[in-house]
Design goal:
The chain is α+β, with helices and mostly antiparallel strands. The chain has a domain of 113 residues: Roll (SH3 type barrels). Helices cover 46% and strands 22% of the residues. 7% of the residues are buried.
Length: 221
């Protein structure tokens, strides 16, 4: 390994997704025409990736009006502003030169489902990790905002989001109270039904005892 490889590795761009040979891509290239600049999109199939580091290149092939067109793009070039992956192709070769002799359906590659994380560039992964690290800070700030909203509510001056949060909390508290009251009503109803059943059983037992006593008196007489 060369001594300058470490320095070169730090300067490599990380904003491009890790596309592979066989992938259908859209390459956004900056084109200068006189005093004006515009972005030109070249869409095709990656048939080769060559080299490494600052000198790495990739070749994209497309067929226009029956004519095959190939362009070689340096990965580290600032003129290549963006690379979009349209679809993934399943191939077992590092060079797809055999596609030059094929056309139509024969030139189609087999697609294969891969991990969607391959579509994300390393730079986007770093930004996502940074956002996740900042998430606890945002939660802490939201807690502070809620406390301030509660203080404002006590003072009687709610506005905007604080008012909505206060209404939401009030609704939750009201639902809790209604649930407790519903449980109390159900318990009271069950107790009343049990009381009435017990009373009916006592009345039936008393009536049965009275009938039995009357029958015994009638028998003795």
């Amino acid at each position: 390994m060369r001594s300058l490889d470490f320095v070169e590795k730090e300067s490599l761009r990380r904003d491009l997704p890790p596309f592979r040979v066989g992938d259908a891509v859209r390459v956004h290239v900056q084109v200068k025409e006189g005093d004006k600049e515009r972005i030109q999109v070249f869409e095709g199939l990656v048939i080769r990736r060559r080299g490494a580091g600052a000198g790495e290149t990739f070749t994209v092939r497309k067929v226009t009006s029956g004519v095959g067109v190939e362009r070689v793009f340096p990965i580290q070039s600032p003129l290549v502003t963006k690379v979009d992956i349209k679809s993934r192709g399943y191939v077992r070769r590092a060079r797809l030169y055999y596609l030059r002799d094929l056309s139509g359906k024969k030139a189609r590659l087999q697609s294969k489902v891969r991990d969607l994380s391959d579509l994300v560039s390393p730079q986007e992964i770093d930004e996502r990790d940074a956002v996740e690290e900042e998430a606890p800070v945002v939660e802490a700030e939201s807690a502070v905002v809620e406390e301030e909203a509660a203080t404002t509510e006590e003072q009687g001056g709610l506005k905007g989001k604080a008012r909505k949060r206060a209404k939401a909390r009030e609704k939750v508290e009201r639902m809790k109270v209604e649930k407790v009251e519903a449980v109390k009503r159900a318990t009271a109803k069950e107790a009343e039904e049990a009381k009435q059943a017990k009373k009916a059983a006592q009345e039936a037992a008393a009536a049965e005892a009275a009938e039995k006593a009357a029958a015994e008196e009638k028998t003795e007489s």
